[in-house]
Amino acid sequence: MVSYDKYIQGLKKSAPPVDYNQLYHQIEQKAARRSFLIVQLAAPLLVIAVLFIVALPAADYFSSSQDDGGALVSFVVQDESGGRALENFIFEN
Amino acid sequence: MSPLEFASLYEAHKEKVWRIASRYVFDREDREDLFQEVWLAVHKALKNFRGEAKVETWIYRVTVNAAINYAKKQTLYRKGRQILAALRVVYEHPPEAVDDLSVPLSKLNPRQRMVLLLADVEERPLEEIAELTGLPIGTVKSNLHRGREIVKKEVMKNG
Predict the structure, then answer these.
(1) Where, by residue number, does the polypeptide cross the bilayer (chain A) (predicted)?
(2) Do B19 and A20 touch (CB under 8 A)?
C-alpha cells in the first residue's frame, strides 16, 4: 500500500516536461485557422443559399408563365385547326 | 470571448490539464496533441459557457471528453495502421518507450486509467467522476477498484 501511495504521489508531483508557451502559440494558431476554415466553408454555402432563394421564385415565375402560354397556344391551334371536327364538316358538306 | 479570458484560463489550468493528458496517453506527440485538443475545445466552447458549473469542473469535463474521443480515434487509427502494415502498405513504427511512472498506468484500459487519474491523482469525489465520465457510480467504483489492483501489482513488480 505504501508503494502505491508513493507512486500516486510521484504522479501528482511530476509530469513529463513541456513547453507551455510554445503549445499556447500552437493552440492560438490552430484556433485561428479553424475559424478561417469555417468562414471559407460557410461563405460559398451562403452564396449558394442566397442564389437559391433568389433564383427559385424567378424560375417558378418564368416556367409557369411559359407553360400557360404553351398550353393556351396549343389549345387555340387544336381548336381552330379543328382536326376531326373540321374533317367531319368538310365531308358532311 | 476575449483572448485575455482564454489566456487566463490557460494560465490557471494548464498544469492540471497537462497532468491528465500526459498520464492518459504515453507518446510525446499524442500527449501534446491531446493537450491542444482540450484547449481548442475550451476555446470553442468558452462563448457558450454560462457559468452554471464551476470553471474547474467544466475544464475537467472538457478534458475528459477530449481524452475519451482521442482514445477512440487512436484505437481506430492504430487498427487501420496495423491492417496497412500487414498489407505492407505502410511501415509500422515501434511504439515509443513509456517513461517509468507511466508503465503501471499503461496496463489499464482507457476507462480505468481515466477513473484512477481523476480519483487518486486529481482527488475528485466519486460522484463528480460519475458525472464527468457519464458512468454510473457503481461502474466508477468497480473501474477504480480494478485499476488500483492492476497498478499495485505493477508497482510491486517494478519495485
Answers:
(1) 36-59
(2) no
